[in-house]
Design a protein that fits this description.
Number of domains: 1
Shape: globular
Radius of gyration: 23 Å
Helix content: 25-40%
Distance between the termini: 35 Å
CATH class: Alpha Beta
Number of helices: 25
CATH architecture: 2-Layer Sandwich
Structural class: alpha+beta
Bound molecules: adenosine-5'-diphosphate, magnesium ion
CATH topology: Creatine Kinase, Chain A, domain 2
Length: 662
Amino acid sequence: MGLLRVGKPMGWHEALPIVPYVKEHGIQQFLNLYNKLKDRSGDVLKWGDEIEYMIIKRDDDAKTVKLSLRAKQILENLVLSELEYWREHSNNPDAVAPDASWKPEYGRFMIEGTPFFPFEGDISYYLKCEESMAKRREIAESLLEEDESLISMTMFPLIGAIKDLVHPPVDETTHNSSHSQYLPDEVINEHPRFPTLTANIRERRGGKVCILVPLFMDTNTDPEVGQRVPWDNIEQPLSTEDLDFKMSQRSPTQFFLYSDRINVFDNTAKVLSPDDTIPPASPCQQILPSTAPMIHMDAMGFGMGCCCLQTTFQARDIVEARNVYDQLAVICPIFLALSAATPIVRGLLAETDVRWNIVSASVDDRTPKEKAYIAKSRYDSISSYIGTGPQAVQYSDLELEIDQKVYDLLVDNQVDQVLARHVAHLFVRDPLVIFTDYDKVDDEMDTDHFENIQSTNWQTVRFKPPPANSTIGWRVEFRVLEVQMSDFENAAFAVFVILLSRVIIAFDLDFYMPLSRVDMNMALAHKRDAVNCEKFVFRTNIQDKSADAIYSQLTIGEIMNGKGDEFVGLIPLVVKYLDGLTDLDAQGRNQLNQYIELLSRRASGELMTAAAYLRKTVREHPEYKQDSVVTEEIAYDLVRLADRISSKQEIPVEMFGNLLKK
Ligand code: ADP
Ligand code: MG
Ligand code: MG
């Protein structure tokens, strides 16, 4: 999240009259940028990753873990070397750059680290990624106290599950921004932007956010346990607001409960539910059966307090960026499932393995009226392709809500219809936080208002125009990956995605298939153990660009490793690409082979995903009572496990085989 400005952020009702101003200027800023930079070339490949970490406070005697609220303090130290570098740099261009760049995140317990400069072109940089990640961890850990841990887990297992969640403890928690019954506002980053964002989403939608995740039913699980405040142990019937949500929320998570009722090969992809009275807005959406046991959450912090792994790469030009964006969008669900790391939600085992839809529902600011015609949350999968070939139109089969004024303006100003639709779709959302100095932004020089809309459209992939006043090119961000506990795994995923983008370009691959199918895959990716249990619709003739798509239903193992004559597999293509590189030495190749091997064996089910391993660890814990409850001591042991895995003191063979050495 960018945009930490100097003005004061306005509350929703104060901001409301300014919304049209910001949108009008935002679109003008995009247009200026586009006209100025549409021919900008990014001649070398640059790329980088972003990793989010949590800071955990441990009590090793009591065996408890809390969220440590020291991120701000730690960040102030982390950025010292960056500030010094930029100060010195102007009079000494040879000043040594720091290893990492650090940013605040939504949680007061979170930090985000990226390489200081993006990695550049040359193949050897694939190998620098893990080194950079390890360095980042080392730097951040050096600022921790003895009883703190820096962990890269997607979701803190006890978030919303214990009353005393934070350290230092607070006497009286506040709930002004979120109104949450589970989460104190103290978990929210203290910069006014973040509590304002939280409150504005709530006020805009007209009530608390409502996040429902299917509960994992073990032999002793109480089906009501997910709808209770654990420390009160009082039954919390869902409010009318929540019930209203049940009736109108249509996000991919809910769909999978009905996946057996969908004929994926039927072109109309109708959902065949008898109790579906409201016509579904998109094929992947379905009303929840009121009887399914759910885990209830009610605050933005449950979603935006999740950590993830993202990669961004710079394309040669806008055309390449647009085309690779489309290809990677299809890959997103596959990599979401393969990187699954979120089996525990609000202290309970969930029937899902990934975070995506938790975040999606946690920032869903749609008003009741909007829910009738806007199919998705602003944090969701993409709804249109943006490539420059005919396939982008052919396979964009979802209804796309657009801001017609924005669309007309763009098309009148020579933006092609496909890109205009994409941008006009971004603009169906309102700016969530407007700062009091909003009118000090210069539309010719700045892009703040455009970025305000762009940066709060959190989709599976993001098409990033060059920032104003920079030499950066057009970029694509891959946003779905679940963060892994070790740098080795994070590097494997980040590097593979970048390699795959190279392979897509080098071999002119074509993954295009209808976006409604991609959304179905997205839904399936949420299912527990989707890697082993689900089949995903995937195009098999990916090396045949001019042909219509031929689909098959493949497991993740088959998509990654190939399936006989039917499908070549992503990994064999990456291997073929590497075989053709002349500047890769044996040691480098060996390291890349390790990454590929890890993903290959996770995909085939031979090795466990992080989610599967964490779930197994909980279920085999001596304190576990087969009731889906992750106790404080189990959570403590999980944090220690994450610590040991990240420092390579422990390398579970179920997750790593013999790939990682101490
Ligand atoms: P956001 O929050 O919008 O994702 P960040 O600044 O947090 O943006 O992350 C940007 C990512 O892009 C980092 O991984 C960084 O290394 C990478 N990056 C920075 N400059 C470039 C560039 N010119 N080309 C590609 N990637 C870049
Ligand atoms: Mg970032
Ligand atoms: Mg990012």
